[in-house]
Design brief:
Helix content is about 45%, strand content about 25%.
Length: about 290
């Protein structure tokens, strides 16, 4: 087993103990996996990843504490002890420094929280997220049907966007957009697992009449978990989905609402490295 495989096993061990077993990290067990002393492992970890092992664990704990604070009715003192803090005061101070708000403030829907993702060895990304309640959303859009295969969708969806931009579809949708925060949405829906197909729609929020060849889409009032993706498209949005599927969608404490997830694209330059897009996941909040 090479070093990267050992490191991945150790990272998985950390996540298992933080999220499932809720037990302290055992340095002896880590040393056995790494096949070296724990002190030497920590030096190598810091050298390879630009962050100390203890700091990595601390940031992961605060990320998971943000999930618990936002999505459950656990008491703050319970969350603080769950992640190894001796007192709610020390936990609140650490939470404030990482998330930029206190745990009690974090329970407000419009307060964004920070994420330090589970390490992926080669690439690491930071994501901010928040919960937002939205009323029913009426959209007008253009759809295409495609095979429900990851690699195929990652090529077909950008192609559909390019086709719409080369024709008058994109500009037509821009003219139809009369929302407060202008921008395009992308949505996957109508999953047919027998046929292996899915519908992808490019759409805008609009109160205007539906033109011929377009369709009306009504999204119900929902609470959305909204994740910011920064960087040029489609790379930033695809990396955002990979992170969510590998960590958040599997382990997050929310239940998915009966509504398609969305991608949102701002009306700025999509090739800019500071370009902002978002992933919207409809969730069912736990009753407080």
């Amino acid at each position: 087993m090479n070093w990267e495989e050992k490191l991945q096993q150790i990272i998985d061990y950390v996540e298992e103990h933080l999220q499932r077993k809720e037990e302290p990290i055992d340095p002896t067990h880590i040393a056995q996996i790494a096949e070296c002393s724990f002190d030497f492992f920590q030096k190598m970890f810091s050298y390879m990843n630009g962050i100390g092992f203890a700091e990595y664990i601390r940031l992961r704990k605060l990320t998971l504490a943000g999930y618990d604070t936002k999505s459950t009715n656990m008491k703050i003192i319970e969350i603080s002890f769950r992640y190894g803090y001796d007192s709610p005061t020390s936990f609140t101070k650490a939470f404030q420094q990482f998330h930029g708000c206190s745990p009690s403030q974090a329970r407000k829907q419009d307060v964004p929280l920070q994420i330090f993702p589970k390490m992926q060895i080669i690439t690491k990304h930071h994501y901010a997220w928040k919960l937002a309640q939205k009323p029913e959303i009426r959209c007008i859009g253009k759809s295409i049907s495609m095979k429900n295969e990851r690699k195929l969708m990652e090529s077909e969806i950008p192609k559909f966007w390019n086709d719409c931009q080369r024709s008058d579809v994109y500009q037509h949708l821009v003219r139809l957009d009369n929302s407060v925060e202008t921008g395009m949405f992308g949505m996957c829906s109508n999953f047919d697992y027998k046929k292996g197909s899915v519908t992808y729609t490019i759409m805008v929020i609009s109160t205007q009449s539906v033109p011929d060849g377009y369709e009306e889409i009504l999204l119900p009032a929902e609470t959305w978990a909204i994740f910011d993706c920064v960087g040029s498209v489609p790379k930033a949005i695809q990396e955002g989905w990979r992170y969510l599927e590998q960590e958040w969608l599997i382990q997050y404490p929310f239940k998915h609402a009966n509504c398609p997830s969305l991608e949102w694209y701002s009306d700025k330059n999509p090739f800019d490295e500071t370009y902002q897009s978002q992933i919207w996941i409809p969730i069912l909040e736990e009753e407080k």
